[in-house]
Amino acid sequence: MSTEKGRKAESKAARHLRLKGYRILDRNVRLGRGELDIVASRRDVLAFIEVKLRPNRDAGLLSVHADKQARLRSAASAWLACHQQYHDWQCRFDLIILTPSGMRSHIEHLQDAFR
Question: What residue numbers bound the domain in which 18 lies?
Fold first, then answer.
């Protein structure tokens, strides 16, 4: 995300993940054909997390279409190539959707959102 709103959404998502026990390993990494918003770990799971700020849940889901997923897979493969210590970890792609809810944002964390 390149806008100020996007950066704030990513910061909220990172804070939410930390509260859930995740360790943030990387943010806003451009590798391969895509960009990884957040790379985080919890226990022995490595999560590549896409953050979407959208007016509703459906818009967030639709924004991670097949081409976007392919770009995220490419970026994740490139990240893993640079971080060999995580080579044997279980990996997954998560999606965090932030939607407006009054003065705050509702945060939904979808684990293993796509493969």
Answer: 4-114
Contact between 90 and 44 (Cβ < 8 Å): yes
CA–CA gap between residue 74 and residue 11 (Å, rounded): 24
CATH code: domain of residue 104:
3.40.1350.10
Q: Furthest-apart CA pair in the chain: how many Å?
A: 43
85 vs 59: CA distance, rounded Å: 35
DSSP state of 84: G
pLDDT tens figures, 22-80: 999 999 999 978 999 999 999 999 999 999 999 999 999 999 999 999 999 999 999 99
Pairing type for strands 90-101 and 45-53 reads parallel
* CA 35/CA 58 separation, integer angstroms: 22
Q: 3-class SS at 43?
A: coil
Answer yes or no: pTM beyond 0.90: yes
